[in-house]
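1st attempt posting a full record on here, be nice pls
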Amino acid sequence: MLSESMKLLQAGDRSIFQMMKSCLGRIAVTSTALLVASCGDKERSAKEGEREKALVITAIPDEKVSDQEANYKSLQEYLATELDIEVKFSISSSYDAAVERFKNGEVHLAWFGGYTGVQARSAVSGARAIAQGDVDPKYKSYMIANKDTGLTRSDEFPSGIKDLVFSFGSKSSTSGRLMPTYFILKETGMMPDKFFTKPVQFQTVGGHDATARAVAGGSVDVGVLSYKKYDSMVAAGDIKAEDAPIIWVTPDYADYNLTAHPELEEIFGKGFIDRLQKVLVDCTDKNVLKAFNRDDLIPASNGEFEGIAEVAKELGMMR
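the predicted structure (as tokens):
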């Protein structure tokens, strides 16, 4: 009987073994896939856990991004020491990228302009403006012109620039686009694209320093930018004031700020943002403050930038 059974298996039922072999192969493949997936999940979890333990800082690229990493190193070290945490600086490629990364929780503390700060806080419930430079409650923009235009400084808006090639900075810049747009509208009754007879330009790479260099070099006739960046570039010899003289200064407005993401309270515990604010405004180290091109930091609150939000809405630029 046993012999006959063996013959049946050998002769007619080899498919059973083939089926068993196939099943075992599928089980092995499935097990391997599950193991790989499990390892991947663990690796992702480890990376997420590592990211959550660090305070990640970014800034709008209102200067050459190659300078930012060096300028923010002292700030990283200062916060790491004072708060006893890991601190990282992560470059954002554009103004919009800085806002998006903050919205996504990829970064937790951002040096924003007034406009980008409003955009970020409106998108993230609980986000707080916690610090600003001592000059930021009363900020302003310079309108500058290439020396060959023959234009000189005036208290009156230089309406004669309408036939010249004009450049803003980034489209999301407060001092390089939003507020100058508002003041041009108020002074002329027209939006810039209607006021100027030639197409309005934008500096897409390099921030305010790109605007200053474009005007000084003559690739555009007139431009508008942060007064702090212009003054620092002249002082450092990066441009000559006579090559790109100031022709008009805007009225004051609120601008730059450090905005904190509410997830910081989940990562480091309740009350952490208040601790972070105190450490920032108590800082007297000039190397740390160099990151912001400021002499001092003072407290800030969301309400101080409501005027910026209203301007953005009026111009149809709030999103």
